[in-house]
Amino acid sequence: MTTHNKKQFGVWMDTHHATVVVKTSPDGNEFVVLTHVENAGAERNSNENAANNQEMALTQKFFKEIAATMPNIDEVHVTGTGQVQEQFIHFLAATPQYKNAVATHSTSLRMGDEQLATFIGKHFN
Hints:
Blueprint: E1 8-13, E2 17-23, E3 31-38, H1 48-68, E4 75-80, H2 84-94, E5 102-107, H3 113-124
Parallel strand pairs: 1-4, 4-5
Antiparallel strand pairs: 1-2, 2-3
């Protein structure tokens, strides 16, 4: 990228919870928690097809809520458990507003807000 200051974000997520961190200043290396986003998940349903459709719709809504907290991003690092990070990165790539953002991912266990901010800070340094 060019030498301009990049808008960098980090996300820890699993299927039900996401924590978004943001770089505090363009020339600094500190990250702070921006927000927490929750996904309640699908309700019990006797029809498997309806349950799957509801789960996919709720996941898309969850991804949109996370993305809405990160306007005009240049870089994002997504970490967490399971495969939801890869799905979120594919969601970002398919969204015109975020298609040019550099997205990376890794797998990590759940961590506290301060640990996440430190982890993301180390990733971008």
